[in-house]
Amino acid sequence: MLSYFIWHSHIYWHGIHCYATLFCLGLLLGACVVWWGFRQHQLPQTTYNTLVPISLIGIILGARLVHCLFYEWDYYVHHLLAILLPFSHENGTVQFVGYHGLASHGATLGLMLAVLLFSKQKKISWLLLFDLFAIATPLAGCFIRIGNFFNSEILGTASALPWAIIFADVDPLPRHPVQLYEAIAYALIFLVNIVIWRRHRAGDGLFLGLNLTLVCVVRLALECIKEEQADFAPPLLTMGQWLTLPFLLFGLVMLLYATKRKESR
Predict the structure, then answer these.
(1) How many angstroms separate the CA atoms of 249 and 143, rounded?
(2) Non-local CB neighbours of 83 within 8 Å, separated by 6+ positions
């Protein structure tokens, strides 16, 4: 008999909300990486100060909308205000409940749209900004997935592997700790970014293409050992895989574009 590690959800640790803290820490470290990129390319500090809040709005809004539309629409179609308002008014009382449900695909899409609109308005290369954010994104994703582990959410399928984990607050089944698999993969992708960044300046779409491709490949693979998170199971693939495919295609196109652009110099 294997003795599996038993995990109890650690939503709070000494009064600190673990997921929210890791989520904010991931975004903060990602913003620091972008700031370093701004310094390398001698972009104005005022531009950075304006871009970061706009990016955060894009991330949160996109993540929330995509989660509600694609993962829990059966509920939110009857609670439309709950999509954007972090309050519950069940049983006649109003309570602050925060946002339960953020989709990484929506966060990516919201960030890309926010950065694209900003770059057009400020007349800054959108490829440069996309590259800088692409370098930082896996680092943020790493911390967010660790937060998912603390919350015992985004569960893996049942497994008999010796490192399987029992999420005691969910059920007694040993499961793949898929949140940690994903966090480790994103950390490695970020390290790859740093190695390449030391030799290759951002701005031609290489980092955008590389990160979208690598992250999407990881996501497609790990979705095979994740429980379906959507209200309904789409045909052939999971909802996460269907949402990943357009980003993978765009990443491959950008990777090809960056390679061709480098060859033509």
Answers:
(1) 26
(2) 64, 65, 68, 76
- Tell me which amino acid residue 221 is: A
Between CA 23 and CA 100 the distance in angstroms is: 13
Per run of 10 residues, the mean pLDDT along the chain (length 265 residues) is 81 73 95 96 94 96 93 84 73 66 93 96 94 97 95 94 94 96 98 94 93 97 93 86 96 93 68
Distant-in-sequence contacts of 35-42, Cβ < 8 A, 24+ apart: 37/131, 37/132, 37/135, 37/136, 37/202, 38/132, 40/201, 40/202, 41/128, 41/132, 41/201, 41/202, 41/203
Distance CA 191, CA 20 (A): 24
Q: Answer whether 0.85 is exceeded by the pTM.
A: yes
Q: Do residues 17 and 11 make contact, with C-beta atoms less than 8 angstroms apart?
A: yes
Q: How long is the chain?
A: 265
